[in-house]
Amino acid sequence: MTLEKPIQALLIVLSLEEEAVARVLRFLEPDDIKLLHELAQRNVKADASVLQVAYRNFLQDAQQPLLAPGEGKAYIERLAQRSLGREESKSLFSGKDGRGGLSSLERRSPQMVSKILAEENPGVIAAVLAELSPPFASSVVRQLPRETQVKVITRLAHIDEIPTSTIESLWTAVEDQLADIDTGEAIVIDGVSRAAGILQRLPIAETDEVLTSMGEEEPGLAHRLRRAMFSFEDLVNVQGRGTQMLIKEISNDQLLLALKTASDALKDKVLGSVSKRAAEILVDDLMAMGPAKLSEVEQAQQEIVDTALRLEAEGKIVIAGRGGEELV
Q1: pLDDT per residue over 92-114, tens digit each?
Q2: Which of 102, 117, 299, 316 is the S-S candidate for 311 at Cβ 3.0 to 4.6 Å?
Q3: pTM (2 decimals)?
Q4: Where in the chain are all domains bearing CATH 1.10.220.30?
């Protein structure tokens, strides 16, 4: 039995589940989808024998290369652009020979990278760190003088975007190579999150010194970084009797409101840190609690986070995963 390619495609599409078809259609051109729609209006025979032929032909075609040697790279890039979008796909494939631009610095030691950057101004260092992963960037920051650390983290937290022309200049200066990037565009950077990610991996004492020094010049920014470094859900990592100590520092109403959107893991953590009777009351109160404004819930959660950070700074509680160190 001979089937035309469009009919064969239609039969396969119609035999798939709706979710699978939706994924397939995302990779088709509008004209192709229109053709399938037109063919679907025909009275096409679609019994088991016809479907078997369609799938057998499809499998045979799948075993034959569709592209000539050397065409695969462009094909994969086109697929990535359709799936991820133009900007994200460009970022994914940036860098000559697939090296990924500034991120290839991570193949070198943090000590070497810090030496390369040591002579640069804080703005340049911050821009470079924004292109590196938080763990590696944190290791680089640790090699810098404390005064430079403060300036670099401050500049990084202020970054909203980096022009690609700047990235090109940085890569040329640091590695003398950079992929061709459209200088009319910019890469969006969440500077506060990047800076917080680096600080999270520094020892707590060093992080506190950096933020304390920064707070003298920009208290608002230091406060934003402290908050960005720790979320309400991170309280599940409070060790030992630390949760009990934290609960004593906050009001019952505050705790009740904050737990309204908490994960089951965090709720279990809290309920396991109080007496059985107190846990029962808390559960009953949560079930009876009416609607609450999300802003009020988030405010209560942030107040509890601030209290937890204060207790941690005072050495009264320990939170696992903080300060780039593991607990033993």
Answers
A1: 555 443 334 566 677 777 888 88
A2: 316
A3: 0.43
A4: 99-207, 232-328
